[in-house]
């Protein structure tokens, strides 16, 4: 292992957890407004673009914010590139030479489309964010690993499927994911809709880890508390809206549960923002049947949302948590006699 990498690992372990709430006194409106007004047709002049975004901002975190928001508002996700890469990677999975050749060829194709068309996939987003931060004098790195969504089947996933970033601000490392902050792809319609999600910007590492497992574990920013890959695959499934509304998922610890009839289960979350407790609900699926149900008990104490539900019937249930119409998390319960 190189000395530089050892130093980075030790530094990350030393500095502790870092999150957006570290900057709760910073008003990002100026950075956001700059990001919304700067326009370019192509990305051939990154130095000039970065200068325009950061020249009137005083703090590194505001500069990072302007770069991040600009990328998320201007770089569209290319599902065609993603599909092409997935097909080729699966095809060459057992042939390392062909896979390496394809990766090299695809990298050129990816960056050409990024620079000319402002369309890309996760690797392009992470690369662009890293480069622009570095131009602004702010250290950032690309992180390769496993991203977890409702469409990912870990029993079939054999290679890393996602890339995101860490960025160093005020001598602390933070995690962010410009790809998942950008918007929503509609593959069947061949279109992409920009829809900025602030939840993946300088996210609490413990929450970020729920759907991001880095190949190099020091980039979890969790130090010795970094769970194993098996633990990662067993965690509850969180959706994009969860990252807007909660700062920490506390209970239950796993996605799949086997419990006895009449068991009371506790669901607990640290909130990032105020919510209407009356609009918190569960949606329960059993076979083809869907039921909307209210928690047996619910409360908010010191910004901690606590929900309890008693399972009074046997069965196999997909159990979804909603805040109003926004899906937050999914769990699975097998209720036995």
From TrEMBL:
Q: Which domain of life is it from?
A: Bacteria
- Pfam families per record: Transglut_core (PF01841)
* Segments forming domain Transglutaminase-like: 114-180
- What is one GO cellular-component annotation here? cytoplasm
| PANTHER family in the record | CYTOKINESIS PROTEIN 3
Protein name, entry field: Transglutaminase-like domain-containing protein
| Organism in which the protein naturally occurs | Polaribacter porphyrae
